[in-house]
Structures are given as C-alpha cells and as structure tokens.
Amino acid sequence: MSAPAESSGGPGQLLGRLAGKVTGRVVETVQPDIILQHVDVDALVDRIDINRLLAKVDANHLLDRIEVDRLIDRIDLEHLIDRIDMDRLIDQIDMDRLIDRIDMERLIDRIDLNRILTTVDLDTLLRDVDLEGLVQRSGVPDIVAQSTSRVAGSALDLARRQLAGLDAVLARVVDHLLRRDTPSQPSAPPLLLEEA
C-alpha cells in the first residue's frame, strides 16, 4: 500500500489534494454571511500595512476615474460654509497686501455711478446738511459783499464821469449861446485851481 502513496508524491501531497477538494466543497455550501460573522474585522484591519497598500495605488489613475462634477454635486455647500470660522479666516488675510493688488482704475471703471446715485435719497441726505454753515465757511457772503461794493463803486464812478461829461457839454453849449471865449474860462473850479 505504500507504493500508491509514493507514486502520488507522498503523504503531504495527498493531504493537500484532499484538503483542496474539501475546501472547495465547503466554500460552495457555506454562506458568506455566516463566515463574516466570525471574522474579527478590527484585527484584520490592524494587520494591514496602509503605507504598503498606498504605495501600490496609482494616484493619477485614481484621479482620472473621479467624476468631478458628480463629486461637487454631492457636496453640501451650506453645511461646508457653516463649518468655516469666518473670523479666523479674515484674521489670516493681509489687508495691505490685498489692497496693493487691487487695480483702482479698473475697479472705478466697473462702478456704475448712475445706478448708485439712483439709490441715494437726496432729500434725506440734504436734510442733515447745515447749508448756512456750509455757505459761511465757503466765503460766498464775503465774495458777494466785495462784488456788490465794487459794482456799486463802479456804477458811482460811471455816473460821475457821465455827469462830468454832460456838465462839460452843457458848459460849451452855454458858452456858445452866450458867446463866451472858451479859452478864457478856467479849466477847474477856482478852489481846486488854487490848491494845484
């Protein structure tokens, strides 16, 4: 009887073939749920070398398989925003650097002043303005007073010149009617001639 065992490769091979056939029958008949109930998942996970496993993963291939639009659709943005600490985020912003990067000309070009002005309530705005104080500080009353006095002075000078001219014309007419000799008449009133 030992001859058949030797021709088949020894007792180890015979047991291996027998175990393989038995294992195959067991796997076919046993339900996986029953086996999984007896598996210690935590112990199994503890035996896995994550770094070794990740070293075998092709990250580029994995990323190529991700559908970004579907991934974004699954993100609850409101929940995500609620979790952000805005004060902490703002504290990390360098405002001077941010302002330095702003193109003010371009920003001003994009502002629609007409639209902004249509939203301004001028009545409410002007109600709070001290117009009298504003006019006093602007110096407008002084300018008006100076202008008025200059205009009045100029008008008086003009009237005097006109009257002096009319006086000279009337004097010539009277001299002509009375046949007086014009050169013999004084060129100014006697008191003024004496002072000169």
TrEMBL record:
Protein name: Uncharacterized protein
Organism: Kribbella orskensis
